[in-house]
Amino acid sequence: MRRQNADDRTGRGQRSAQMNEGLMSLTHPTVSQESPQKAEPLIRLDRISKRFPGVVANDEVSVDIWPGEVHVLLGENGAGKSTLVGILSGIQRPDDGNILIDGKEADIPTPAAALSLGIGTVFQHAMLVPTLTVAENIALGGAPLGRPDRTGIAGDMARVCADLGISVDPNAKVGQLSLGEQQQVEIVRAVMRQSRVLILDEATAMLTPKGAEELGALMGRLVARGFAVIFITHKLNEALAYGHRITVLRLGRKVGELGPDDLERLGPKDATDEVIRLMFGERTAAGPGEEAHVRRTPLTPVPVFEIRDLSVSDPLVPVEDVSFGIRAGEIFGLAGIDGNGQKQFAEALAGQRPIASGEVILSGAEIGHLSPGNRRRIGLRYVTDDRLGEGTVGAFPISLNLLLKQVGEQPFWNRGFEQSSAIADHARQLVSDFDVRTPGIETPIGKLSGGNIQKALLARELTGDARVVIFAKPTYGLDVQNIRATRDRIRAAADRGLAVLLISTDLEEVLELSDRIAVMSQGRIVGTTENDTGARTRVGAMMSGVAA
Protein backbone atom coordinates (compact mmCIF):
# COMPACT_ATOMS: atom_id res chain seq x y z
CA MET A 1 0.00 0.00 0.00
CA ARG A 2 1.53 3.29 -1.07
CA ARG A 3 0.49 6.86 -1.63
CA GLN A 4 -0.82 7.17 -5.16
CA ASN A 5 0.46 10.06 -7.28
CA ALA A 6 -1.15 11.63 -10.32
CA ASP A 7 0.62 9.27 -12.72
CA ASP A 8 -0.76 6.27 -10.84
CA ARG A 9 -4.28 7.60 -11.38
CA THR A 10 -4.14 7.98 -15.15
CA GLY A 11 -4.91 5.34 -17.74
CA ARG A 12 -6.86 3.08 -15.41
CA GLY A 13 -9.13 0.72 -17.28
CA GLN A 14 -12.66 0.09 -16.20
CA ARG A 15 -12.98 -2.51 -13.47
CA SER A 16 -16.04 -4.65 -13.98
CA ALA A 17 -15.47 -7.54 -11.55
CA GLN A 18 -18.72 -8.26 -9.78
CA MET A 19 -18.76 -8.11 -6.00
CA ASN A 20 -19.03 -11.68 -4.74
CA GLU A 21 -18.23 -13.58 -1.57
CA GLY A 22 -21.15 -11.88 0.18
CA LEU A 23 -20.62 -8.47 -1.43
CA MET A 24 -23.18 -6.52 -3.43
CA SER A 25 -23.34 -7.56 -7.06
CA LEU A 26 -22.27 -4.11 -8.21
CA THR A 27 -19.58 -3.16 -10.72
CA HIS A 28 -16.64 -1.46 -9.04
CA PRO A 29 -16.40 2.20 -10.08
CA THR A 30 -13.55 3.64 -12.09
CA VAL A 31 -11.70 6.82 -11.29
CA SER A 32 -13.09 9.68 -13.31
CA GLN A 33 -11.20 10.44 -16.50
CA GLU A 34 -13.30 13.54 -17.22
CA SER A 35 -11.81 15.74 -14.52
CA PRO A 36 -8.35 17.27 -15.05
CA GLN A 37 -5.59 15.36 -13.29
CA LYS A 38 -3.59 17.26 -10.67
CA ALA A 39 -0.10 16.78 -9.28
CA GLU A 40 -1.32 17.33 -5.74
CA PRO A 41 -4.44 16.35 -3.80
CA LEU A 42 -7.37 18.69 -3.46
CA ILE A 43 -7.15 18.34 0.34
CA ARG A 44 -4.27 17.07 2.43
CA LEU A 45 -4.73 16.28 6.11
CA ASP A 46 -1.18 16.22 7.47
CA ARG A 47 -0.56 14.53 10.84
CA ILE A 48 -3.85 15.65 12.36
CA SER A 49 -4.23 15.04 16.10
CA LYS A 50 -7.22 15.73 18.33
CA ARG A 51 -7.45 14.97 22.04
CA PHE A 52 -10.38 14.98 24.43
CA PRO A 53 -10.16 14.37 28.19
CA GLY A 54 -8.90 10.82 28.55
CA VAL A 55 -9.15 10.05 24.82
CA VAL A 56 -6.90 10.58 21.79
CA ALA A 57 -9.51 10.69 19.03
CA ASN A 58 -7.05 11.30 16.16
CA ASP A 59 -3.36 10.49 16.49
CA GLU A 60 -1.21 12.00 13.68
CA VAL A 61 -3.61 10.99 10.92
CA SER A 62 -2.57 11.86 7.36
CA VAL A 63 -5.04 11.50 4.47
CA ASP A 64 -5.04 12.84 0.90
CA ILE A 65 -8.34 13.60 -0.86
CA TRP A 66 -8.20 13.61 -4.67
CA PRO A 67 -10.75 15.03 -7.12
CA GLY A 68 -12.60 12.45 -9.17
CA GLU A 69 -12.52 9.83 -6.38
CA VAL A 70 -14.84 8.43 -3.74
CA HIS A 71 -12.54 8.20 -0.72
CA VAL A 72 -13.97 5.84 1.90
CA LEU A 73 -13.16 6.16 5.62
CA LEU A 74 -13.66 2.84 7.39
CA GLY A 75 -13.41 1.88 11.05
CA GLU A 76 -15.50 0.58 13.91
CA ASN A 77 -17.01 2.73 16.68
CA GLY A 78 -14.37 4.95 18.27
CA ALA A 79 -11.93 4.66 15.38
CA GLY A 80 -11.78 8.46 14.90
CA LYS A 81 -13.77 8.86 11.68
CA SER A 82 -16.33 11.33 13.04
CA THR A 83 -13.68 13.48 14.70
CA LEU A 84 -11.66 13.69 11.48
CA VAL A 85 -14.77 14.64 9.53
CA GLY A 86 -15.69 17.18 12.21
CA ILE A 87 -12.30 18.83 11.80
CA LEU A 88 -12.71 19.02 8.03
CA SER A 89 -16.28 20.34 8.42
CA GLY A 90 -15.27 23.11 10.83
CA ILE A 91 -17.04 21.53 13.83
CA GLN A 92 -13.80 20.63 15.66
CA ARG A 93 -10.39 22.27 15.73
CA PRO A 94 -7.30 20.04 15.51
CA ASP A 95 -4.77 20.20 18.33
CA ASP A 96 -1.87 19.47 16.01
CA GLY A 97 -1.25 19.03 12.31
CA ASN A 98 -2.07 20.98 9.16
CA ILE A 99 -4.84 21.12 6.56
CA LEU A 100 -3.80 22.01 3.01
CA ILE A 101 -6.32 22.87 0.29
CA ASP A 102 -4.91 23.14 -3.25
CA GLY A 103 -1.46 22.96 -1.69
CA LYS A 104 -2.01 25.96 0.59
CA GLU A 105 -2.40 25.79 4.35
CA ALA A 106 -5.99 26.46 5.40
CA ASP A 107 -7.80 27.17 8.65
CA ILE A 108 -11.34 25.83 9.13
CA PRO A 109 -12.62 27.39 12.37
CA THR A 110 -16.35 27.10 11.62
CA PRO A 111 -18.80 25.24 9.36
CA ALA A 112 -19.27 28.51 7.44
CA ALA A 113 -15.52 28.58 6.77
CA ALA A 114 -15.69 25.00 5.47
CA LEU A 115 -18.48 25.98 3.08
CA SER A 116 -16.48 28.99 1.86
CA LEU A 117 -13.60 26.62 1.07
CA GLY A 118 -15.87 24.37 -0.98
CA ILE A 119 -16.43 21.64 1.61
CA GLY A 120 -20.04 20.50 2.03
CA THR A 121 -21.21 17.89 4.55
CA VAL A 122 -24.27 15.64 4.46
CA PHE A 123 -24.85 14.01 7.84
CA GLN A 124 -26.63 10.74 8.65
CA HIS A 125 -29.68 12.66 9.88
CA ALA A 126 -30.87 15.30 7.43
CA MET A 127 -30.21 18.91 8.54
CA LEU A 128 -33.34 20.27 6.87
CA VAL A 129 -36.47 22.03 8.15
CA PRO A 130 -39.34 19.59 7.48
CA THR A 131 -42.08 22.25 7.35
CA LEU A 132 -40.33 24.24 4.61
CA THR A 133 -40.19 23.45 0.91
CA VAL A 134 -37.10 22.13 -0.81
CA ALA A 135 -36.41 25.56 -2.38
CA GLU A 136 -36.82 27.32 0.98
CA ASN A 137 -34.39 24.92 2.63
CA ILE A 138 -31.83 25.51 -0.09
CA ALA A 139 -32.17 29.27 0.40
CA LEU A 140 -31.47 29.00 4.16
CA GLY A 141 -28.08 30.36 5.13
CA GLY A 142 -27.69 32.54 2.06
CA ALA A 143 -29.12 32.53 -1.44
CA PRO A 144 -27.06 30.23 -3.67
CA LEU A 145 -25.55 31.62 -6.83
CA GLY A 146 -26.58 35.11 -5.72
CA ARG A 147 -30.25 34.56 -6.61
CA PRO A 148 -32.56 34.99 -3.61
CA ASP A 149 -35.88 34.54 -5.42
CA ARG A 150 -37.67 31.19 -5.39
CA THR A 151 -38.05 31.13 -9.15
CA GLY A 152 -34.32 31.56 -9.59
CA ILE A 153 -33.57 28.87 -7.01
CA ALA A 154 -35.98 26.47 -8.70
CA GLY A 155 -34.33 27.09 -12.06
CA ASP A 156 -30.84 26.55 -10.65
CA MET A 157 -32.07 23.41 -8.92
CA ALA A 158 -33.50 22.05 -12.13
CA ARG A 159 -30.17 22.47 -13.91
CA VAL A 160 -28.17 20.84 -11.10
CA CYS A 161 -30.65 17.98 -10.77
CA ALA A 162 -30.59 17.35 -14.51
CA ASP A 163 -26.79 17.32 -14.49
CA LEU A 164 -26.72 14.83 -11.59
CA GLY A 165 -29.52 12.67 -12.94
CA ILE A 166 -31.94 13.11 -10.02
CA SER A 167 -35.45 14.48 -9.71
CA VAL A 168 -36.51 16.71 -6.81
CA ASP A 169 -39.59 18.93 -6.72
CA PRO A 170 -38.50 22.37 -5.42
CA ASN A 171 -42.03 23.05 -4.12
CA ALA A 172 -42.36 19.81 -2.12
CA LYS A 173 -42.37 20.01 1.67
CA VAL A 174 -39.22 18.34 2.97
CA GLY A 175 -41.16 16.47 5.65
CA GLN A 176 -43.04 14.61 2.92
CA LEU A 177 -39.86 13.30 1.27
CA SER A 178 -38.20 9.96 1.93
CA LEU A 179 -34.83 9.86 3.71
CA GLY A 180 -33.09 9.21 0.41
CA GLU A 181 -34.80 12.17 -1.23
CA GLN A 182 -33.84 14.41 1.69
CA GLN A 183 -30.21 13.39 1.27
CA GLN A 184 -30.44 14.23 -2.42
CA VAL A 185 -31.73 17.69 -1.45
CA GLU A 186 -28.73 18.20 0.82
CA ILE A 187 -26.36 17.12 -1.94
CA VAL A 188 -28.03 19.48 -4.41
CA ARG A 189 -27.75 22.29 -1.85
CA ALA A 190 -24.03 21.60 -1.41
CA VAL A 191 -23.45 21.57 -5.17
CA MET A 192 -25.35 24.85 -5.59
CA ARG A 193 -23.12 26.41 -2.94
CA GLN A 194 -20.06 25.67 -5.07
CA SER A 195 -18.78 22.75 -3.00
CA ARG A 196 -15.93 20.82 -4.55
CA VAL A 197 -15.71 18.26 -1.73
CA LEU A 198 -18.77 16.41 -0.41
CA ILE A 199 -18.55 14.59 2.92
CA LEU A 200 -21.22 11.90 3.29
CA ASP A 201 -21.19 10.88 6.97
CA GLU A 202 -22.92 7.51 7.47
CA ALA A 203 -25.25 8.57 4.69
CA THR A 204 -26.54 5.05 3.99
CA ALA A 205 -27.15 4.06 7.64
CA MET A 206 -30.86 4.92 7.53
CA LEU A 207 -31.51 4.06 3.88
CA THR A 208 -33.12 1.00 2.35
CA PRO A 209 -30.85 -1.19 0.17
CA LYS A 210 -32.38 0.43 -2.91
CA GLY A 211 -31.78 3.91 -1.44
CA ALA A 212 -28.16 3.00 -0.73
CA GLU A 213 -27.67 1.83 -4.32
CA GLU A 214 -29.17 5.07 -5.62
CA LEU A 215 -26.81 7.08 -3.43
CA GLY A 216 -23.88 5.01 -4.67
CA ALA A 217 -24.83 5.74 -8.27
CA LEU A 218 -25.13 9.45 -7.45
CA MET A 219 -21.64 9.43 -5.90
CA GLY A 220 -20.36 7.94 -9.15
CA ARG A 221 -21.92 10.76 -11.17
CA LEU A 222 -20.48 13.37 -8.81
CA VAL A 223 -16.90 12.16 -9.07
CA ALA A 224 -17.27 11.79 -12.84
CA ARG A 225 -17.78 15.57 -12.86
CA GLY A 226 -14.63 16.21 -10.86
CA PHE A 227 -15.97 16.32 -7.30
CA ALA A 228 -14.15 14.65 -4.44
CA VAL A 229 -16.43 12.56 -2.22
CA ILE A 230 -15.49 11.47 1.30
CA PHE A 231 -17.77 8.57 2.21
CA ILE A 232 -17.90 7.41 5.84
CA THR A 233 -19.45 3.99 6.38
CA HIS A 234 -19.23 0.90 8.57
CA LYS A 235 -20.20 -1.38 5.69
CA LEU A 236 -17.34 -2.95 3.82
CA ASN A 237 -19.52 -4.09 0.92
CA GLU A 238 -20.44 -0.43 0.25
CA ALA A 239 -16.80 0.62 0.56
CA LEU A 240 -15.70 -1.86 -2.08
CA ALA A 241 -18.69 -1.25 -4.34
CA TYR A 242 -18.47 2.54 -4.42
CA GLY A 243 -14.97 3.53 -3.30
CA HIS A 244 -11.86 4.25 -5.35
CA ARG A 245 -9.66 4.60 -2.27
CA ILE A 246 -10.16 3.18 1.25
CA THR A 247 -8.51 4.50 4.39
CA VAL A 248 -8.86 2.42 7.57
CA LEU A 249 -8.77 3.99 11.04
CA ARG A 250 -8.44 2.06 14.28
CA LEU A 251 -8.28 3.54 17.78
CA GLY A 252 -7.61 7.01 16.38
CA ARG A 253 -4.75 6.05 14.09
CA LYS A 254 -4.54 5.44 10.37
CA VAL A 255 -3.58 1.77 10.05
CA GLY A 256 -3.64 1.43 6.28
CA GLU A 257 -4.86 2.61 2.90
CA LEU A 258 -5.85 0.82 -0.28
CA GLY A 259 -5.54 3.03 -3.37
CA PRO A 260 -7.10 2.37 -6.77
CA ASP A 261 -4.17 0.27 -7.93
CA ASP A 262 -4.26 -1.80 -4.72
CA LEU A 263 -7.96 -2.50 -5.15
CA GLU A 264 -7.40 -3.42 -8.80
CA ARG A 265 -4.53 -5.75 -7.94
CA LEU A 266 -6.18 -7.48 -4.97
CA GLY A 267 -9.66 -8.02 -6.35
CA PRO A 268 -12.80 -8.17 -4.21
CA LYS A 269 -12.03 -11.18 -2.02
CA ASP A 270 -8.43 -10.31 -1.10
CA ALA A 271 -9.36 -6.64 -0.62
CA THR A 272 -12.11 -7.73 1.77
CA ASP A 273 -9.69 -9.87 3.77
CA GLU A 274 -7.11 -7.08 3.92
CA VAL A 275 -9.57 -4.43 5.09
CA ILE A 276 -10.99 -6.73 7.78
CA ARG A 277 -7.43 -7.41 8.98
CA LEU A 278 -6.75 -3.68 9.16
CA MET A 279 -10.04 -2.86 10.90
CA PHE A 280 -10.00 -5.58 13.54
CA GLY A 281 -6.39 -6.72 13.77
CA GLU A 282 -4.98 -10.21 13.98
CA ARG A 283 -4.51 -10.54 17.73
CA THR A 284 -6.17 -13.63 19.18
CA ALA A 285 -4.46 -13.75 22.55
CA ALA A 286 -5.03 -11.24 25.33
CA GLY A 287 -2.77 -8.22 25.39
CA PRO A 288 -0.83 -6.86 28.38
CA GLY A 289 -3.06 -6.61 31.43
CA GLU A 290 -5.91 -8.46 29.73
CA GLU A 291 -7.26 -11.89 30.51
CA ALA A 292 -8.10 -14.18 27.61
CA HIS A 293 -11.65 -15.51 27.54
CA VAL A 294 -11.99 -18.77 29.39
CA ARG A 295 -15.33 -20.45 30.04
CA ARG A 296 -15.34 -20.85 33.81
CA THR A 297 -18.69 -22.46 34.57
CA PRO A 298 -20.05 -25.72 33.13
CA LEU A 299 -23.08 -24.86 31.06
CA THR A 300 -26.46 -26.52 31.35
CA PRO A 301 -27.77 -28.07 28.11
CA VAL A 302 -31.10 -26.20 28.24
CA PRO A 303 -31.27 -22.38 27.93
CA VAL A 304 -32.65 -20.56 30.95
CA PHE A 305 -33.43 -17.46 28.86
CA GLU A 306 -34.81 -17.66 25.32
CA ILE A 307 -35.85 -15.10 22.72
CA ARG A 308 -38.05 -16.54 19.97
CA ASP A 309 -38.78 -14.64 16.75
CA LEU A 310 -38.85 -11.33 18.60
CA SER A 311 -39.83 -8.20 16.66
CA VAL A 312 -40.02 -4.63 17.96
CA SER A 313 -41.62 -1.76 16.06
CA ASP A 314 -39.54 1.39 15.74
CA PRO A 315 -39.67 4.17 13.11
CA LEU A 316 -35.88 4.26 12.75
CA VAL A 317 -34.54 0.74 13.38
CA PRO A 318 -37.18 -1.97 13.84
CA VAL A 319 -36.03 -5.24 15.36
CA GLU A 320 -37.08 -8.26 13.32
CA ASP A 321 -37.28 -11.99 14.08
CA VAL A 322 -34.49 -12.26 16.66
CA SER A 323 -34.02 -15.71 18.19
CA PHE A 324 -31.38 -17.19 20.51
CA GLY A 325 -31.06 -18.82 23.93
CA ILE A 326 -28.67 -18.29 26.85
CA ARG A 327 -27.76 -21.00 29.33
CA ALA A 328 -27.15 -20.52 33.05
CA GLY A 329 -23.53 -19.45 33.55
CA GLU A 330 -23.12 -18.33 29.92
CA ILE A 331 -22.15 -14.89 28.67
CA PHE A 332 -23.80 -14.31 25.30
CA GLY A 333 -22.25 -11.33 23.51
CA LEU A 334 -24.31 -9.20 21.13
CA ALA A 335 -21.90 -7.18 18.99
CA GLY A 336 -22.52 -4.65 16.26
CA ILE A 337 -22.12 -1.04 15.26
CA ASP A 338 -24.08 1.29 17.52
CA GLY A 339 -27.54 2.27 16.31
CA ASN A 340 -28.50 -1.05 14.72
CA GLY A 341 -31.41 -1.84 17.03
CA GLN A 342 -29.51 -2.92 20.14
CA LYS A 343 -31.14 -0.35 22.41
CA GLN A 344 -34.66 -1.10 21.14
CA PHE A 345 -34.00 -4.81 21.64
CA ALA A 346 -32.68 -4.40 25.20
CA GLU A 347 -35.57 -2.18 26.22
CA ALA A 348 -38.09 -4.68 24.84
CA LEU A 349 -36.49 -7.49 26.83
CA ALA A 350 -36.57 -5.35 29.99
CA GLY A 351 -40.26 -4.51 29.46
CA GLN A 352 -39.68 -0.82 28.76
CA ARG A 353 -40.81 -1.08 25.14
CA PRO A 354 -43.72 -3.12 23.71
CA ILE A 355 -43.04 -6.29 21.76
CA ALA A 356 -44.65 -6.42 18.31
CA SER A 357 -44.43 -10.21 18.06
CA GLY A 358 -42.46 -13.15 19.39
CA GLU A 359 -41.74 -14.54 22.84
CA VAL A 360 -39.43 -13.91 25.80
CA ILE A 361 -39.00 -17.10 27.86
CA LEU A 362 -37.48 -17.27 31.36
CA SER A 363 -37.13 -20.78 32.84
CA GLY A 364 -39.81 -22.09 30.52
CA ALA A 365 -42.37 -19.34 31.25
CA GLU A 366 -43.37 -16.65 28.74
CA ILE A 367 -42.78 -13.22 30.33
CA GLY A 368 -43.20 -10.86 27.36
CA HIS A 369 -46.52 -9.58 28.73
CA LEU A 370 -45.16 -8.71 32.18
CA SER A 371 -44.34 -5.20 33.41
CA PRO A 372 -40.70 -4.23 34.09
CA GLY A 373 -41.31 -4.57 37.82
CA ASN A 374 -42.75 -8.06 37.54
CA ARG A 375 -39.93 -9.16 35.24
CA ARG A 376 -37.48 -7.95 37.86
CA ARG A 377 -39.26 -9.83 40.64
CA ILE A 378 -38.85 -13.15 38.81
CA GLY A 379 -35.15 -12.53 38.21
CA LEU A 380 -34.66 -10.47 35.01
CA ARG A 381 -32.32 -7.51 35.52
CA TYR A 382 -31.31 -4.71 33.15
CA VAL A 383 -28.21 -2.50 33.42
CA THR A 384 -28.88 0.43 31.10
CA ASP A 385 -26.20 2.35 29.21
CA ASP A 386 -27.83 5.65 30.23
CA ARG A 387 -26.59 5.84 33.81
CA LEU A 388 -27.82 9.32 34.68
CA GLY A 389 -30.78 9.81 32.37
CA GLU A 390 -32.45 6.42 32.85
CA GLY A 391 -30.58 4.33 35.41
CA THR A 392 -30.58 6.78 38.31
CA VAL A 393 -32.16 9.97 39.61
CA GLY A 394 -29.21 12.30 40.08
CA ALA A 395 -30.74 14.42 42.86
CA PHE A 396 -31.76 11.37 44.94
CA PRO A 397 -29.34 9.94 47.55
CA ILE A 398 -27.37 6.80 46.82
CA SER A 399 -29.43 4.88 49.38
CA LEU A 400 -32.68 5.52 47.52
CA ASN A 401 -31.15 4.92 44.06
CA LEU A 402 -30.09 1.47 45.22
CA LEU A 403 -33.78 0.72 45.76
CA LEU A 404 -35.17 2.72 42.85
CA LYS A 405 -36.85 -0.35 41.36
CA GLN A 406 -38.19 -1.59 44.71
CA VAL A 407 -39.95 1.51 46.03
CA GLY A 408 -42.85 0.51 48.28
CA GLU A 409 -41.65 -3.05 48.78
CA GLN A 410 -40.90 -4.69 52.12
CA PRO A 411 -38.77 -4.63 54.20
CA PHE A 412 -37.82 -1.13 53.05
CA TRP A 413 -41.38 0.19 53.13
CA ASN A 414 -44.16 -0.96 55.43
CA ARG A 415 -47.75 0.03 54.60
CA GLY A 416 -46.42 2.96 52.62
CA PHE A 417 -44.04 4.19 55.32
CA GLU A 418 -40.33 4.34 54.65
CA GLN A 419 -38.20 2.16 56.94
CA SER A 420 -35.12 4.38 57.21
CA SER A 421 -32.93 2.00 59.16
CA ALA A 422 -33.53 -0.90 56.74
CA ILE A 423 -32.80 1.33 53.74
CA ALA A 424 -29.60 2.64 55.34
CA ASP A 425 -28.35 -0.84 56.31
CA HIS A 426 -29.03 -2.10 52.80
CA ALA A 427 -27.17 0.85 51.25
CA ARG A 428 -24.13 0.54 53.54
CA GLN A 429 -23.82 -3.16 52.73
CA LEU A 430 -23.93 -2.64 48.95
CA VAL A 431 -21.61 0.38 49.04
CA SER A 432 -19.10 -1.78 50.89
CA ASP A 433 -19.55 -4.92 48.76
CA PHE A 434 -19.25 -3.05 45.45
CA ASP A 435 -16.62 -0.52 46.56
CA VAL A 436 -18.73 2.55 45.73
CA ARG A 437 -16.53 5.54 46.58
CA THR A 438 -18.83 8.11 48.20
CA PRO A 439 -18.76 10.55 51.14
CA GLY A 440 -21.89 8.85 52.47
CA ILE A 441 -25.03 6.97 51.54
CA GLU A 442 -27.07 10.20 51.56
CA THR A 443 -24.86 11.83 48.91
CA PRO A 444 -26.84 12.59 45.72
CA ILE A 445 -25.77 9.95 43.23
CA GLY A 446 -25.36 12.56 40.49
CA LYS A 447 -22.33 13.93 42.36
CA LEU A 448 -20.40 10.68 41.97
CA SER A 449 -18.02 9.84 39.13
CA GLY A 450 -19.27 7.75 36.21
CA GLY A 451 -17.38 4.74 37.52
CA ASN A 452 -18.98 4.91 40.93
CA ILE A 453 -22.44 5.44 39.46
CA GLN A 454 -21.86 2.28 37.43
CA LYS A 455 -20.81 0.40 40.58
CA ALA A 456 -24.08 1.47 42.22
CA LEU A 457 -26.08 0.22 39.21
CA LEU A 458 -24.27 -3.13 39.34
CA ALA A 459 -24.92 -3.35 43.07
CA ARG A 460 -28.64 -2.79 42.52
CA GLU A 461 -29.05 -5.23 39.61
CA LEU A 462 -26.72 -8.08 40.61
CA THR A 463 -28.02 -8.63 44.14
CA GLY A 464 -31.11 -10.44 45.33
CA ASP A 465 -32.76 -13.10 43.19
CA ALA A 466 -31.19 -12.19 39.85
CA ARG A 467 -31.23 -15.03 37.29
CA VAL A 468 -30.71 -13.21 33.98
CA VAL A 469 -28.82 -9.92 33.56
CA ILE A 470 -28.85 -7.75 30.43
CA PHE A 471 -25.88 -5.39 30.21
CA ALA A 472 -26.12 -2.54 27.67
CA LYS A 473 -22.68 -1.05 26.88
CA PRO A 474 -21.61 -1.59 30.51
CA THR A 475 -18.17 0.07 30.27
CA TYR A 476 -19.04 2.97 27.98
CA GLY A 477 -17.33 6.16 29.16
CA LEU A 478 -15.42 4.54 32.03
CA ASP A 479 -11.70 4.78 32.80
CA VAL A 480 -9.40 1.76 32.55
CA GLN A 481 -9.66 0.83 36.22
CA ASN A 482 -13.47 0.89 36.25
CA ILE A 483 -13.64 -0.95 32.93
CA ARG A 484 -11.64 -3.76 34.48
CA ALA A 485 -13.77 -3.76 37.65
CA THR A 486 -17.01 -3.87 35.65
CA ARG A 487 -15.82 -6.72 33.46
CA ASP A 488 -14.78 -8.65 36.57
CA ARG A 489 -18.32 -8.21 37.95
CA ILE A 490 -19.80 -9.54 34.71
CA ARG A 491 -17.58 -12.61 34.89
CA ALA A 492 -18.47 -13.12 38.54
CA ALA A 493 -22.18 -12.97 37.70
CA ALA A 494 -21.77 -15.75 35.16
CA ASP A 495 -19.64 -17.75 37.59
CA ARG A 496 -22.58 -17.65 40.04
CA GLY A 497 -24.76 -19.26 37.40
CA LEU A 498 -26.54 -16.20 36.02
CA ALA A 499 -27.36 -16.06 32.32
CA VAL A 500 -25.72 -12.91 30.92
CA LEU A 501 -26.61 -10.97 27.77
CA LEU A 502 -23.72 -8.58 27.03
CA ILE A 503 -24.68 -5.92 24.49
CA SER A 504 -21.59 -3.94 23.54
CA THR A 505 -20.17 -1.96 20.64
CA ASP A 506 -16.63 -2.63 21.99
CA LEU A 507 -15.41 -5.66 20.07
CA GLU A 508 -12.49 -6.22 22.44
CA GLU A 509 -14.92 -6.40 25.35
CA VAL A 510 -17.19 -8.88 23.59
CA LEU A 511 -14.24 -11.10 22.62
CA GLU A 512 -12.76 -10.99 26.10
CA LEU A 513 -15.93 -11.95 27.99
CA SER A 514 -18.33 -13.88 25.76
CA ASP A 515 -18.81 -17.62 25.32
CA ARG A 516 -20.79 -17.09 22.12
CA ILE A 517 -21.17 -13.98 19.98
CA ALA A 518 -23.96 -12.80 17.72
CA VAL A 519 -23.88 -9.70 15.51
CA MET A 520 -26.89 -7.40 15.09
CA SER A 521 -27.20 -5.27 11.96
CA GLN A 522 -30.26 -3.21 10.99
CA GLY A 523 -32.31 -4.89 13.69
CA ARG A 524 -31.52 -8.46 12.66
CA ILE A 525 -29.09 -11.12 13.85
CA VAL A 526 -26.77 -11.66 10.87
CA GLY A 527 -24.76 -14.49 12.40
CA THR A 528 -23.65 -16.28 15.57
CA THR A 529 -20.30 -17.87 16.38
CA GLU A 530 -18.52 -19.62 19.21
CA ASN A 531 -15.80 -17.47 20.77
CA ASP A 532 -12.90 -19.66 19.72
CA THR A 533 -9.91 -19.38 17.39
CA GLY A 534 -10.78 -17.16 14.45
CA ALA A 535 -13.78 -15.56 16.18
CA ARG A 536 -12.31 -12.06 15.75
CA THR A 537 -12.18 -12.43 11.98
CA ARG A 538 -15.64 -13.98 11.75
CA VAL A 539 -17.23 -11.31 13.95
CA GLY A 540 -15.38 -8.55 12.11
CA ALA A 541 -16.66 -9.86 8.78
CA MET A 542 -20.23 -9.95 10.08
CA MET A 543 -19.95 -6.43 11.51
CA SER A 544 -18.65 -5.19 8.17
CA GLY A 545 -21.60 -6.64 6.30
CA VAL A 546 -19.69 -9.13 4.16
CA ALA A 547 -20.42 -12.44 5.87
CA ALA A 548 -23.22 -14.13 7.75
- Which word captures the global form? elongated
The averaged pLDDT comes out at: 83
The unreliable regions are 1-36, 143-147, 283-292
Strand order of the largest sheet: 6-7-8-3-9-10
Second CATH tier, the architecture of the largest domain: 3-Layer(aba) Sandwich
**Largest sheet, strands/sense/barrel:** 6 strands, mixed
- Highest-level CATH class of the largest domain: Alpha Beta
What is the count of β-strands? 22
CATH T-level topology of the largest domain: Rossmann fold
Secondary-structure class: alpha/beta
> What's the number of structural domains?
3
Helix content: 25-40%
Helix count from the secondary structure assignment = 17
- Per CATH, the superfamily of the largest domain is P-loop containing nucleotide triphosphate hydrolases
Which strand-content bin applies to the residues? 15-25%
| Radius of gyration over C-alpha positions, nearest whole angstrom | 26 Å
Q: What is the rounded distance between the termini?
A: 28 Å
Protein name: Ribose import ATP-binding protein RbsA
Keywords: ATP-binding, Hydrolase, Nucleotide-binding
GO molecular function, one term: ATP hydrolysis activity
Region (Disordered): 1-21
What does this structure look like?
The chain has 17 helices and 22 strands. It has 548 residues and is an alpha/beta fold. It folds into 3 domains: 17-280, P-loop containing nucleotide triphosphate hydrolases (Rossmann fold, 3-Layer(aba) Sandwich); 286-379 and 465-548, Rossmann fold, CATH 3.40.50.300; 393-464, no CATH class. A 6-stranded mixed sheet has the order 6-7-8-3-9-10, sandwiched between helices. α4 crosses α5. It is elongated and about 75 Å long.
